[in-house]
Amino acid sequence: MTTTRAFRCEDLFRFNNINLDALTETYNVSFYYMYMSTWPDYFKVEEHPSGKLMGYIMGKAEGEGTLWHGHVTAVTVAPEFRRRGLGRKLMHSLERTSESVFDAYFVDLFVRVSNSLAISMYTRFGYSVYRRVIGYYSGTEDAFDMRKALPRDREKRSIVPLEHPIYPDDLEW
């Protein structure tokens, strides 16, 4: 049985088993602190009964009007704990927060177009490709902006795919 709890400052010194993975985007310490202080409801960790960290999710709320949404900045599970439903559990936590705390219209995330495993996982979670962002990852690789409508978006307008790709400078947020 795992525990989902708020990410704490000391977790920054305990999550190397999660972050030292080629598929995980890592950030500097001040970036994590900013998320913990600004969007604490969105920064969660999965902890094993032994105390070992198994995975985490961090996100934020952003946008205006019908573009008000929850954003998944990072979600990752340590390789030794994958395929146990922890990614789904973390994503569901962020979606619930987006819906119940922030009353968002949708949740979005960016994923490398080459990361077919993640794209498949997000699709199983109910996300769909909204648009392609050319050169999103350091100008070298495109991203898919994937979205999932929340109950506030009754007509599901937030997930109607765009017909053409955009560039990072064209992103709204």
TrEMBL record:
Keywords: Acyltransferase, Transferase
Superkingdom in the source lineage: Eukaryota
Domain N-acetyltransferase: 2-151
Annotated GO CC locations: NatB complex
UniProt name for this protein: Uncharacterized protein NAT1
InterPro entries to which the protein is assigned, alphabetical: Acyl_CoA_acyltransferase, GNAT_dom, NatB_acetyltransferase_subunit
Family under the similarity heading: Belongs to the acetyltransferase family. ARD1 subfamily.
Pfam families referenced in this protein's UniProt entry, alphabetically: Acetyltransf_1
CDD domains assigned to the protein according to its UniProt record, in alphabetical order: NAT_SF
GO molecular function: protein-N-terminal amino-acid acetyltransferase activity
